[in-house]
Amino acid sequence: MSSAEIESYKGIAVKSRPALTLFFASTPVSVLIYLLIVGLIMYSAYTGAQSMGYNWQWYQLPKYLYAFTDDGFQFGELMFGLGHTINISVVSFLLAFLLGLLVALLRLSGLLIGSAVAIGFLEFVRNIPLLVLVYLFYYVLGPIFKFDRYTASILVLAVYHSALISEIFRAGINAVAKGQWEGAKSIGMTTSQTYRYIILPQSIRFMLPPMTGEVVHMVKSSAIVSVIAVAELTTVGQNIISDTYLSFEIWFTIAALYFVVTVILSIGVSYIEKRYAVVT
Amino acid sequence: MSQEQPIIKFQNVDKFYGTFQALSDVSIEVKPSERMVICGPSGSGKSTLIRCINGLESHSTGKLVVDGVEVFEGSKEIIKLRQNIGMVFQQFNLFPHLTVLENLTIGPIKVRKIAKQEAEVIARKYLDRVHIPEQADKLPAELSGGQQQRVAIARSLCMESRIMLFDEPTSALDPEMINEVLDVMVELADTGMTMVCVTHEMGFARKVADTMVFMDEGKIIEVAAPDKFFSNPESQRCKEFLEQILEH
Questions:
Q1: Model's pTM, two decimal places?
Q2: What is the interface pTM, i.e. ipTM, of the complex?
Q3: 151-210 of A, contacting B, C-beta below 8 A
């Protein structure tokens, strides 16, 4: 039945949507508009670069990504940088995850000292810029506890993100119905058994979406440790640029590399989310 | 005679939420195998009373002894004690991420440390008892309310409890499912289990109760055998309440 045939209950034809709205809402037109906007942005970037006399050298780029030498396929500098970024992100995230869980449990423990410590930690971390934390860990804590820039970068990212992750844990745990605690207690479970078998498995589905955001955030904020010259993607890019002046090509490529990693992460997690979906 | 020793004993128990007094000087005893039904208007403290028994709420003053163990806030023994006390809630409180069978076996396996296979044998036995053996592999959300409540009863039975507490077990159910749950409870009452039940199902109460208790404003107003309780209650307040709920 086409829209023109629909009549309201009084027998008056229902007005169809204005033709202009229908035109802009149709898929081909939307795609066309989208391509037009993207094209405009790319074009203005290109002409902008032309007008400042930028010498595009995309052909230089592949050797920083990969190379075929006598030994066969080799990764280029940028890929090693990306490897370090992933390495730092993964290790920091694991640490942040454990520390975050600990802080969240302290906060929820109901012990006065526990929640005081947790809140103190949270407020400290959340109210200091990440950049300042990086300097604090590298220039102050580094010499005191004798750790290198790599350790400093991992620790600072872990501490910073553990504060955010602990809030995700707390929200996820609180989102599980109170009755679950009572059900578990009534069959004689201890607090730790209740967390392990009843509460945490159910809170996973509440925590996954914000936790994905946090992983993506972690990968992105790992770029900040370039200020203490840890050899991750951003630092490697800066080094290449200072050698070759390929700033446009390299920065575009670095942005694309971060983008690819975070998109892959998001897709992976949405798959896990479907697995943990629970009907209540 | 040891048989006459109360299994649950409240002595002058008070309970405050801030300044609100939920229980006021409650003294009552439940003997082994006794079936007690508690009724009263909402906010009268019946749920608080029953939840004190297994320490889900802790009383403020007075003394509460359950199965030879004193219950008080922060007691370590209460966790052990809860293994012997089953509790059925108004909202079922089944674990939605576990199948029916897992809901029944998780207590025996993790708390009582029974082998998985043995726990499953016990679980299937009690699923039979509540007449839903065929639902073992479903998730709670796939069952009707009445079936969920029967699973909850079976879950408590799987802990081989000696005391069963029912906190308005039929209040959240569709009317046509109430009877299937009450039937199971009547069958349970016939096995000699100690039962404390908060409910407004007076037909059920008449059928199984040894003792009727009426509460109002945190106080126990009337304790009587069902015959006397329904025909000739002593207090005016109780009489009014019964008239209200038995009117229809």
A1: 0.77
A2: 0.89
A3: 177, 179-180, 182-190, 193, 197-198, 201-202
